[in-house]
Amino acid sequence: MSKEKETNTKITKSKKGVSKMMYFTTPIYYVNDAPHIGHVFTTVNADFLTRFYKSLGYDTYFLTGTDEHGQKIAKAAQQANKTPREFTDTIVPKFFDVLNKMHIEINHFIRTTDPEHEALVQKWFQKFYDNGDIYKGKYKGKYCVDCEGYYGDDELLPGDLCPNHKKPVSVMEEETYFFKLSKYEFYVKELFAKKDFILPEKYKGEAHQRLSQGLKDVSISRKSTDWGVKVPFDKEHVVWVWFDALINYISGLQGKEQYWPATHILGKDIFWFHAVLWPAMLKAMNYEPPRFFVHGWWTTNGTKMSKSLNNFIPPETLTKYGVDEARYFLLRQMPCGEDSDFNSKFFEERYLELSNTVGNLINRVAIIAQKNYIDLTKDYPIEKSIQIEIDKTIKEVKDDLDSFKVQGAIMKIMSLGQFLNKYTNDTEPWKLVKTNKEKASVVVYNLVLGINLLTLLLEPCMPEKMKEARKIFRFKAEKITDIYILSTKKIKPEKVLEIEPKILFPMIMKFEF
Predict the structure, then answer these.
(1) How far apart are CA 91 and CA 68, in angstroms?
(2) Domain layout of the chain by residue ranges
(3) Would the pTM count as exceeding 0.85?
């Protein structure tokens, strides 16, 4: 269920009595067109991490939403012969549809047109002005409407093209209010020196050159458009869309600021404003800095997917062979911080990986247990190798996710599946049961323990498929924390298996997109 809801997760206390909390966000997405694979990828990442940490006992909050102000939206609305608000109201439901289709569960969906958000933007803007962090001036520069930002000559491609959209920029000169970003230069550089501020670390290196040139004050209002939040003390100006949008990470908490600081999950193309301007704004308002998990781009034939290039993959194409299968592909395919290509060959490889490592294992073990009436509710000894593998997998997966190595974590989980398959082949319980049912029962019992963890760890990635798998064994564990102590009854099935095992990942002869 992905519709907006309030969290009712039980708060887990640490040893010091302080709640363990995690707050995950996606960027708020521009609504100048329908959602695509880029939106889906970022949001599935955030959903996966939220579900995983919740399973570890954390109290979590997950925010996503839409960015609805600025020249780009006004232009798209004009082309559609609608007012900006009418236009955004037609696009936003498409994002809700994607959340539902992709099994994404959120705590709140924010729109920058929400009155509560607009009020907070004006409150912050006034506070900055009162504290001397904002002043009035004039700005002239080269502006990309699609990026809603200015570029220096050294940042543009030949022919004055935007480096992201490959379109000509416009020269703009207007009266504006500036935010004193230069005032926070030392603070931002201090943050960049911290180990876990930005992951992966490679993106720090890419930003160092720009930081070494010094931070200039930023133009944060526009007179050239009236579609935006009005500057509270000067109604001729609207707040620059980026300045407006970043504040959503606070307004979207709806007063639940105990969840701050956030972990922001975002693509590398919007990394600079988030990692430089946003922490400076937060410092000016006395908030702790967030941390950033930055990912690469999806490509087709090495070219970045984007709406402006008309080569993006829509959600309906992505889910052609199953929603959870698509979620697995996205999380498993892209290396940490790198780009990845979407094509039929790679999707087939990932699907076969699921079928062979997870689907076949569950089917084989369930059939052996069922056909031979093995009572899995009995207390059998736990094999040392199984115990070691379970403990190792939990630790390694969490270590990877703490460092935003999502692909690495998925591969560690699948390594457990490979271990269990090898254990099955080595012990041959289908033969052993004919000569020594007690020994065969111990083997199957240990395999079921491993499958319990395997399906729990994969559930944040494939929530519906793994629920189906867990029904086969009637597992009672609901969180990873339930199987930290292997003596708990929650690790075992409720009773002897009776359900006919279902083929989770049926054979597909040919994959075509």
Answers:
(1) 10
(2) 21-318, 344-491
(3) yes
